[in-house]
Amino acid sequence: MRLSKSLGVVSLLAMASTMAPADAADLFFNPEPITTSGWTVTLKANLRAAPSYPGSDDLSFYGFPSVSLRRAGTPERFSAPDDGVSFSFLDDSAFRIGVVGRFQGGRYLEDNRELFGLRKVDWAVEPGIFVEYWPVEFLRARAEIRRGFGGHEGFVADLGLDWVQRFGAFTTSLGPRLALGDNEFTRTYFGVTPFEAALNGQVTPYNPSGGITSVGALAGVTYEWSPAWSTTAYVAYRRLVGDAADSPIVKQFGSENQYSLGLTVSYSFNTGS
């Protein structure tokens, strides 16, 4: 796995994020702002375990830093652990819209020697837009639509619904997930050309179409140690479906069941006046 290159891109994406003020669901965020002037900066250390590449049955571990910024005295918005790095340009009490970015890891022979003969897929960055809506104060709906650059040039979308509740210092979230990809995306990660099949010898040619690529769920919990420190842990499950699940790469070398988990430690402080 090209970890050093991957971490550099993830860090750049993460450090581009900012947080906009005002939210309908203040109940679920820090009720005690550190101050009422200047800015609140939140530094995060993230550790993740996720499939080595889409369809893999092996997990790869990686870590990266991230940072967010908001005006002091405004509550920190709820953010699910699998949200893309986002910046809102339209923000009211229940509705947000803005830009988002994600990092998609690549697929390399060193990830699995059985991939011999299959194309190398480099990592990709996926800029796009997001829409977020709170129909009630404990339920959040979010959609992201992104376009890949680098390893794949396709369009992808992620849809999620989160039930969010606060219990003292704990904030919990749970909800379903749905992922989609177009022809370009699915053929990049799940397709096999006749030439690749001949070189590999264990898979047959396969030309998938776009559509729903996975369904699943995510559960997360955040513990607020103090107004400055918090820890978030999550576990997620996605099951590949449709043409993605039928790929000989998945059936021969990987798994339809995709698990991931992670841990984030956050520290917030004030700067400016």
Could you please describe the fold and organization of this structure?
By secondary structure, the protein is mainly beta. It has one domain: Porin (Beta Barrel), CATH 2.40.160.40. The chain has helices spanning 3-14, 183-190, 194-200, 242-245, 248-253; strands at 39-51, 59-71, 85-91, 95-104, 124-136, 139-147, 149-150, 155-167, 170-181, 211-224, 229-240, 257-271. The longest helix is centred in the first third of the chain and has 12 residues, at 3-14. It is elongated. Residues 1-24 form the signal peptide. One of its GO terms (cellular component) is cell outer membrane. It comes from Microvirga aerophila. Keywords: Cell outer membrane, Membrane, Signal.
Provide key terms for this protein:
273 residues, mainly beta, Porin, 5 helices, elongated, disordered N terminus
Tell me the layout of helices and strands.
Blueprint: H1 3-14, E1 39-51, E2 59-71, E3 85-91, E4 95-104, E5 124-136, E6 139-147, E7 149-150, E8 155-167, E9 170-181, H2 183-190, H3 194-200, E10 211-224, E11 229-240, H4 242-245, H5 248-253, E12 257-271
Antiparallel strand pairs: 1-2, 1-12, 3-4, 4-5, 5-6, 5-7, 6-8, 8-9, 9-10, 10-11, 11-12
Pfam family, one: MipA
InterPro entries: MipA
Keywords: Cell outer membrane, Membrane, Signal
**β-sheet strand percentage:** over 45%
Question: What is the averaged pLDDT score?
Answer: 86
Any idea what the CATH superfamily is called?
monomeric porin ompg
Order of helices and strands: HEEEEEEEEEHHEEHHE
Residues in helices, as a percent range: 10-25%
Largest sheet: 12 strands, antiparallel
Distance between the termini: 44 Å
Structural class: mainly beta
CATH architecture term: Beta Barrel
What is the CATH fold-level name?
Answer: Porin
Q: What best-fitting shape do the alpha-carbon axes yield?
A: elongated
**Radius of gyration, taken over Cα atoms and rounded to an integer in Å:** 20 Å
Which residues form runs of ≥5 with pLDDT under 50? 1-35
Number of helices: 5
Count the domains: 1
CATH class: Mainly Beta
| Number of distinct beta strands | 12
Protein name: Membrane protein
Main location: membrane
Family: Belongs to the MipA/OmpV family.
InterPro entries: MipA (IPR010583)
